[in-house]
Amino acid sequence: MSLNGALQVGQSAILASQAAISVAGNNMANAATPGYHRQRIGIMPGRPESIGRGQFTGTGVQIGSITRQIDVALQARMRTAIGDQAGAMIDQRFLASVELLQNELSGADISSQVSAFFNSWSELANNPTDSGMRSLVLQQGESLAGGIRQLRGEYVVLREEADRGLGVAVERADAILDEIAQLNISIAQTEQGVGQANTLRDQRDGLIDELSELIDVTTIDQANGAVDVLVGSLPVVISGESRGLELRTETVNGLREVSIRIEADGSDLMVSSGTIGGLLRQREQTIEPVIQTLDQFTSQLIFEVNRVHSQGQGARGWSQLTSGNAVSDPSAALNASASELPFRMENGSFLISLTDPDTGSSSSFLIEIDPDLDSLDSVASRIQSAIGPSGGTAEVGQDGTLQLTAPEGQELSFSEDSGGFLAALGINSFFNGSDGSDVAVNDSILSDSSLLATGSDFTAGSNGNVLKMVELRDKAVGGLSGRSLREFWESGVNDLAVRASAANTRLEGAAVVTESLFAQNQAVSGVSLDEEAIDLLSYQRQFQAAARYLSVIDETLQSLLSIA
Fold first, then answer.
1. Disulfide engineering: 95 pairs with which of 319, 399, 500, 528, CB 3.0-4.6 Å?
2. Which of 102, 166, 13 is nearest to 491 (CA)?
3. Which of 375, 368, 367 is nearest to 339 (CA)?
4. CB burial string 318-330: b at 16+ within 10 A, e below
């Protein structure tokens, strides 16, 4: 080998050592940098040089590559775990929030208020003429109705919180997709099929990790260094193009529904994990169901209480009254969708009675109803025919309510409603409203407790209707699948408690899995300062040896020159 070749060997060793020292130093400098992957330099011997027949000598060292230390399969598992943990955190958070809002066993919960309501009726049964006990029943009814409205309002606020969270998360995910697409372009232009742009790849991996916390993603590496990002089987980033994400809101059957779509073509994404998946799941599987459960419970509470109350009589009758519920089309059949009544009724009949409070004389009229054929107009006409000759009136108001007026000096009362017409229309009702959003005690009864229907069979001082109301607490209700009001509500509460406990367990398990995978990933990609210090010392010795080698070659060259 010539002296020039020997100098080249020394130079290659110096350059390789400097590069290796630089890589080790860069690793140490980024030991605490989030998302940084440890880099390793690959050093290879130079191509041998022939110095004679069948004889070769080395030409020094060359840098093969500088690569990131990464396990792609482990990284994919860690991203899945990150998404699962983020989704589990959302599950735990919202289930705990609903459980906190219900606040069962606190004494101020719906279960306690329902019990207090029916207990007040039970106490009233002992002395149905006591005005104080009547007022207590009305107060407990107001408390129950107010508690239901408040709880439903808090459920709605929780749903709005989920919707806002979805909006923020989808907006951030869309921005990340744009950043990933831009990095794909930069990486492809920088690498041009040779080597790796490690810093840019770390930035992209950090963005994909952040994206996996929001939505479940998979990646496909491309030959030019870019990655395609998919949600399920649908691509959201293709090379340097982001197809975008958007949150779409639609109203279906009066319910506000949300979905995640690909902005480019409107494709519906099936998101199962991450913050977005968790918010969608909790919105659809927890918040909406608890609202519907509360509304179903309240609707049946209103109807069943009103069905009992509407057939009873108070200390006095009604001089005039307006139904609590209205129809949209007075000419449509009562059970038709066009009438838009909140409650359905059956074929049956009821008695409407006119009583003279001074003499006690009364007359009753049987009103038969087929709700699949009769409209509110026809029923009003039938009632008018019954009470009209005495001077009473029955008409449908412009707002679709049924308005009844007793003849002068007489009072109206009702009984024996076999089809539920009175309860469905809200006539002689205890509650007004149709669900948890608008339930309230009838204002007329609140202002005059003598209208509270405690008796039955038109017997003065009777507690017959009160006893029927007390029985309602444990009565099987068809609209609640044969369960009583108390059983239905407690079943929903218990189901939520089980789900909340399971969510806590899932979150704990997901955290353990994520922590384990993170530790494994750090073992592969994390920087060990001790290991880097050892490598740095080795590279330093290599550099010193190369410098000494060059010094020897220089001395040899100087000796040859001095001889010459």
1. 500
2. 102
3. 375
4. beebbbbbbbeeb
- Rounded Cα–Cα distance for residues 122 and 474 (Å): 13
The Cα–Cα gap between 82 and 210 comes to: 9
* CA separation, residue 261 to residues 170, 218, 329 (Å): 10, 17, 39
| Mean pLDDT, the chain, whole residue set | 91
Helix, strand, coil shares of the chain, percent, nearest 5, are 55, 15, 30
Per residue in 492-517, pLDDT tens? 999 999 999 999 999 999 999 999 99
CB 121 within 8 A of CB 467: no
Looking at residue 241, its pLDDT comes to: 93
Eight-state DSSP code of residue 215: S
Break the chain into its structural domains and give their ranges. 3-69+528-563, 293-495
Instruction: Name the residue among 507, 485, 490, 515 with its Cα closest to residue 96.
Output: 507
Q: How far apart are CA 547 and CA 545, in angstroms?
A: 5
* Dist CA 507 CA 273 (whole Å): 13
Please classify residue 399 by burial: count the beta carbons closer than 10 Å to its beta carbon, then call 0-12 exposed, 13-18 middle and 19+ buried.
exposed
Residue 1 has pLDDT above 70, yes or no: no
Q: Which long-range contacts (CB under 8 A, 24 or more apart) does 241-248 make?
A: 241/181, 242/174, 242/177, 242/178, 242/180, 242/181, 243/177, 244/174, 244/177, 244/178, 245/170, 245/173, 245/174, 245/177, 245/215, 245/269, 246/170, 246/174, 247/166, 247/167, 247/170
C-alpha dist (Å) from residue 409 to 240, 338, 404, 524 = 86, 37, 15, 94
Question: How many CA atoms, within 13 angstroms, populate the side-chain half-sphere of residue 511?
Answer: 8
Q: Which helix (H) or strand (E) holds 169?
A: helix 131-191
- Token pair listed for 338: 């066009």
- The model's pLDDT over 381-426, given as tens digits with 9 standing for 90+, comes to 999 999 999 999 999 999 999 999 999 999 999 999 999 999 999 9
Q: What is the dihedral of CA 83, 87, 93, 95, to 10 degrees?
A: -160
- Closest by CA to 463, choosing from 121, 120, 137, 139, is 121
- CB under 8 Å to 513, separation ≥6 — which residues? 81, 84, 85
Structure tokens at 108: 């101020």
Q: Tell how strand 218-221 and strand 320-322 pair up.
A: unpaired
CB of 60 closer than 8 Å to CB of 11: yes
Please identify which residue in the block is written with the tokens 């994990």.
Answer: 273
Provide the pLDDT for residue 52.
73
- The pair of structure tokens assigned to 49 is 């040089």
Three-class secondary structure of residue 243 per DSSP: coil
Strand locations in 53-169 (E)? 55-57, 61-68
> How far is 17 from 528, CA to CA, in rounded Å?
20
Q: Check if the beta carbon of residue 246 is closer than 8 Å to that of residue 259.
A: no
**pTM of this prediction?**
0.87
Q: What is the DSSP letter of 534?
A: H
Which residues are CB-neighbours of 149 under 8 A, at least 6 positions away?
436, 437, 438, 439, 440
Cβ-contact 469, 309 below 8 angstroms: yes
Summarize the confidence of residues 21-25 as an average pLDDT. Answer: 90
